[in-house]
Predict the structure.
Amino acid sequence: MSAMASEKALLDVRGLTVRFGGLVALNALDLRVREGEIFALVGPNGAGKTTLLNCVSGFTQPSAGSLTFDGVDVLALARHRRAALGIGRTFQNVQLFGTMTVLDNLLAAQHAHLRANFATSLLPFGPAIAEDRRARAHGREILELLGIAQYADAIAGALPFGVQKLVGVARALALRPRLVLLDEPAAGMPQTEVTQFAGALRRWRDELHVTFVLIEHNMTLVQSVAETVSVLDYGRKLAEGTPAEALANPAVLEAYLGSAGAREAAHAER
Amino acid sequence: MAPTQPTSPTLVSTAPPPVARAGALGMLRRVRASQALLAALLIVLVALPTLFDQIFGFSGAFQLHRVSLIAIFALAALAQNILTGYAAQPSLGNAAFFGLGGYLLAWLAGDLGQPYWLAIIIAMLASALIGVIIGGPALRVSGAYLAIATLGLVLIASALFDLWDTTAGRQSYGINNLPNLLQDDHTLYYLVLLITIIVFALGWVLLRSRVGRAWVAIRDSEAAALAFGVNATYYKLLAFIVSAALTGLAGALYAIWAQTADSSMSSVDQTIVFLAMIVVGGLGSILGSALGALFVGFLPLLLGQVPSPLTVGGLSIQVSTLTTGIYGLLLLLALIFFPAGLAAIRDYLGALTARLTRAARSASSAQRGGAA
C-alpha cells in the first residue's frame, strides 16, 4: 500500500486547535497526509473530524496551529482561493447546486480553473464558450468514470439521495483536485455496496492521481480502503497507523466501546 | 449486481434517469421548437406596429405606446431577477436606480441638451457607479436586513428627487426638447424593442456562462460555492452593479417614454411592481422576467374593464387606487401557490391535466365497478 503513497506530506496539520466558546473541538492536532494515499479519519461524534475539514475549507478559523497544503499556508488564504490549490470536498448533507443539472454542477466545480470574466461571458462566441466546451467534456469524463453519465442532464436536487451523494463526489473530482476530502461518503449506503464503493475509491485514486481524506463511521469501508487511519476523540489523536493497528489500540476500543467493552474485547482476543 | 433499493447509491445504476424523455433527439426537438417559437415571436414583435394600425385604427399608436412600456418594464424585471432570482439577494433598492436613470436623462438630455444616446449611456454608467458605492456596504448584510437597508435607499432617492423638483419649482421633471423621432410611437417602439432584445440576448448568454453559474451556485449553496472557488462577495456585488445599470437604463427609457421623470419612479409602489413582475413571472427565469412585465403591463387594462368607481354595498371604490394592493396580493398568492411563476405554467398545467385524467379514470372505473 505504501508503494502507492510517497513519503511527502501533501496535507500537513500541526498543533491545530479550535475552540467553540469553552469547548475544545480540536486540541493541538498533528496530522500528515501523504500524497497518493487514502487516509481515514475516524472517531465518535463530536471528535472533531468535520471541524478539521471545515478548517481546511475555511468555514472555521483555528485559534492556534498551522495547516499547509504542499507547502502553502492554507489558513492565510481566503476561503474561495483554496479550491484553486486543488482541494475538493464533499459535504455531509451533500450541498449540491440543486437547481442546476448534474453536468452544470460539474461545470460550476471547475470555476477556479476557468478564466471567463463578465465581458467575455456576454459573448455567444470566443474564449468563454471554448473553455466552457472543454469543461463540459471534462465533466462528462468524470461522470463516465463514476458510472453516472446517464444523469448528466437531470436536475441535481431531484435525484435520489444516494445518487446525489455520488454527484457530490463527482463534483469534487471535477475540480481536478490533488486532495479530496470526503465527509461520510458511506453514510446511508447499504452494506452490500460499501465494498463496491471501496474498490471504486481506489480506482478513482489511481486514475485521477488524487489523495483522499475520508471521514467515516463505516468500519467496513475504512478497513477495506484506508492505508492510514487516524482515530480522534475529544479533538485529540488517540491512535494512528494501518487500520489493523489503529483500530486494535486499547485507547480506541475504550473510546468506542467504553471501558467494559474494551475489557471484553481484550478478553475475547485472548 | 445485487438487487438494490431505489434510493440506494448504486455505483452503476440501472434505474432510468429522470430525464429519460430528454434524450439527444428529444432535446434537439425541444431546442428546434423553442427556436421556431422565438422566431415567430420576433416576427410578430417587428410586425406589431403595422398590425396595431390595422386592428385599432386611430388608437393603434396609443396601444403601441403601452407595449413599449412593457418592453421597458421587461428590462427592469430582468435586472431585478438577476439580482434576486439568480444571485438570491433580496434587494428592494432597484427603484432608486430607476428614478436615477430617469432624472439623469431628463437633466442631461432635457436641460443640458446632450444627445439622447449619450444621456442613456451616462444614466446607465452612473447607476452602475452608484451601484458599486452602495452595493459594497449594503451586501455586508443579508436577508431581511439587506431588504430593509435597500428599501431605505429608495426612500432617500425619492426624497432627493422631490427636493430637486421643489427647489427647481416644478411638479415633475418634464422633458420639452424630445426629438420628433423619439416622439413618434413607431420609432420609440422599435428603439425600445431593439434595446430590450439585445439586453435579453446578452443576459441569456451571461446566465449560462461561468458568471451565471457562480450566481446560481451562491443561491443554491453558498458554502459549496465558496468551497469550489466562487468569490461570493465579488459575484454578489457584480449582480448588484449589473442590476443597477440595467435598471438605470430602464429608468432613462421610461423618462423618454413618459417625457418626464417623476419622484414616484423611486417609490415603494415601484419596488412592489418590480418584485411582482419577477415573482409572478418566475424567479430565476429569463422568460419569467418578460412574462412578468407582460402581466404587469396588462393588469391595468383588465382593471380598466371594471366599472369605476366600483360600488360594493355602501362603499365606493376608485379601482385605479387598488393597483398596488392588487400587485401585493398577487405577489403573495404567487409565492404561496406558484413559487415558480408564469414561466413554469406548462409544468403546472401538465400536473393539473395528469391529476384530472387520473381522477376521471378512477371515477369511470368506480362507475364500471358499480355497474357490474
